[in-house]
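Our preliminary data section would be incomplete without showing what the modeling component actually yields. Below, a chain of 172 amino acids is followed by its predicted structure, encoded as tokens that our downstream tools consume directly.
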Amino acid sequence: MKKEDKSVIIGQLTETVKKYGHFYLVDVTAMNAEATAELRKKCFDAGIKLVVVKNSLLHKALTSIENVDYSPLYDSLKGTTGVMFTEVANVPAKLLKEYKKVNPTLKAAYAEEGFYIGADQLNTLASIKSKNEVIADIVALLQSPAKNVVSALQSGANTIHGVLKTLGERPE
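Predicted structure:
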């Protein structure tokens, strides 16, 4: 591969890492063409961009990014590496857990500004809540006290109304 081609690929990888907030490094060595094509389709359907990369080029791309130190991931760049880029941190983990064919092994991941190294981190990654899930939880928590207040006021209003009605009907 020519040096100019490598520079273009490194630039593209750098931009892709910056564009997506989260990415997973998976070992796709044991996968044949059919299994890889099926995984690509499932990734596409889930909004994940799957790219098989040369480890040295990905290493250079990660090194060129100044905002984040990706050095914890460098030891994982061995063998055949597929990178799953996503905007929602837990989607690739859930997809990897459900994938029934030859399982691509999780090497490492960068999700929610944290590093997850090793296949044993898959359950942890799958349990991470997305931004929208966290927002929904917060809204539900905020609505709960308001609902209790409204409910108490309504029941209190009925009670007060009943008391006033009884007092109004009482002979003097």
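The chain has six helices and five strands. The longest strand covers residues 105-111. Preliminary results of this kind motivate Aim 1 of the renewal.
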